[in-house]
């Protein structure tokens, strides 16, 4: 654990100082980030903080460790840079995954809640469109969870969804966030609900293509390519 913790702290420090481009594995940062965020690879964040405090006593580093960790993880995560919210961070995160998950929560949503249950009757994307509900890409989204439903004049209703890249890194992060939520007690299952919601929208290949054309999901090839 001590050796792994030293590696992680040094990793964040070198990234913060701009030395990461010299790493032999620089071109494969996505794999490294996904590995750091695996729920089975988590270690107490307090251990990392203790090591970092010891380092600060023998150096000039003053950057907050939480921010360095998020800067590194967000470097590999494809998406708008304003989707991370430092003011919503856990003050005492259990581990790196817990910290990263808290940074992706919507600011107006409490970290802990008593919300229970998930919708089970949401229609898929094309059926919603036929029912008069447009699906649009939400610009300047503050979180992946910032989905809203609005009544407009033409068409009468609009479901606005923040864009999400479909790639191995994003998939891995979402899976680990959902797994973590299933292990936490008295915590609202934000990402679990998000995955269930998106799964309802994309029940057929045509629904996936519909969301791709709307630029809600990115990183996949057209259906007929």
Automatic annotation (TrEMBL):
Q: Which domain of life is it from?
A: Eukaryota
InterPro entries, from UniProt?
DUF247_pln (IPR004158)
Supply the Pfam families for this chain: DUF247
- Name of the protein this chain belongs to: Uncharacterized protein
């Amino acid at each position: 654990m001590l050796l792994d913790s030293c590696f992680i702290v040094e990793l964040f420090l070198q990234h913060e100082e701009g030395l990461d481009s010299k790493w032999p594995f620089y071109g494969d940062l996505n794999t490294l980030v996904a590995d750091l965020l695996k729920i089975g690879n988590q270690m107490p964040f307090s251990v990392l903080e203790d090591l970092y405090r010891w380092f600060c006593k023998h150096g000039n580093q003053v950057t907050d460790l939480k921010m360095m960790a998020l800067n590194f993880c967000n470097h590999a995560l494809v998406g708008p840079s304003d989707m991370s919210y430092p003011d919503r961070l856990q003050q005492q995160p259990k581990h790196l995954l817990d910290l990263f998950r808290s940074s992706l929560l919507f600011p107006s949503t409490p970290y802990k809640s008593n919300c229970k249950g998930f919708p089970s009757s949401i229609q898929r994307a094309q059926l919603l469109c036929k029912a008069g509900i447009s699906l649009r890409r939400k610009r300047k989204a503050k979180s992946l969870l910032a989905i809203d439903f609005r009544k407009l004049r033409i068409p009468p209703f609009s479901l606005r969804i923040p864009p999400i890249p479909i790639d191995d890194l994003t998939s891995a992060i979402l899976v680990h966030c959902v797994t973590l939520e299933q292990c936490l007690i008295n915590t609202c299952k934000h990402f679990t609900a998000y995955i269930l919601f998106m799964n309802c929208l994309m029940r057929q290949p045509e629904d996936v293509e519909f969301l791709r054309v709307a630029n809600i999901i990115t990183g996949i090839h057209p259906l007929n390519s």
